Amino acid sequence: MADDMLINGLPPAAHLVLGLATTATPEEARAAYLEAVRRHPPDREPERFRELHTAMQAFCDPLPLAESAFRVPRLRSDLKAIIAAAAARPPRLPARVLLALGNVPQDGER
Amino acid sequence: MGSRKRKNNNRRQAQLARRQRNRLLNPEGWQPRPPAEAAWLDVAPLAAPNESAEDQAVFDADVSNRLPPDLQAESAVVREALDLTARGEPHAALDRLAVIGRKSPYADWRLFIRGLVAFQRGDLAAAREAWHRLEHGRRPIRIATVLSRAWEEAAAAPSGSPRAVVPAAAGSAHEVVALGLMRRASMWTAAREIAAVRHRDEERTFSASQAALAIRLEKQFRPLDPDFVSEFSAACRALALRQRDEEPLLALCRSTAGPADDPRNTRLQFIHLQRFMDADEEVRQCAREHVDRDLPGLMHLPEPLRAALAGVTLERAAAHLLDQEDGFMSELTPHEEQVCERLLRESLERYPRNRRAHEALIALLTTRGEEDESDGDAGRALFNAKLAFVGFFPDQYVHVQDLIDRFIAAGNFARAEPLVKSLIDQRTGDAGSRSVAWRFELLKASALAATDDLLAQARTALEASIAAWPNWIPRLWIPFLEAALRLREGDEAGYTAAVDAGRRESPDALSSDVMLHEALVRMKCPTERIEPIRMRIRQAAKDVAIDSPVGPLANAACFFMELERCGIPLDDDAHPAFSIGGAFARRLGQDGKSTLGSLIGRTSGLPVDDPGFWAAFRWLANHDFFGVVKPRREPKGIARLADRQPRAAAEVLEWLTRTSPDSLTTRKAGKRLTLVERFIATEPNAAIVQRLGAIVTAAREAIEEAEKRERQTRFRMTGRGFPPPEYARSPSDLPPFLQIILDRGGPDALAELVPLLVGPRNERTAKRIAQLAARLGISKSQMIDLLEP
Question: What is the pLDDT of residues B439-449, one digit of tens each?
Answer without folding.
Answer: 888 988 998 89
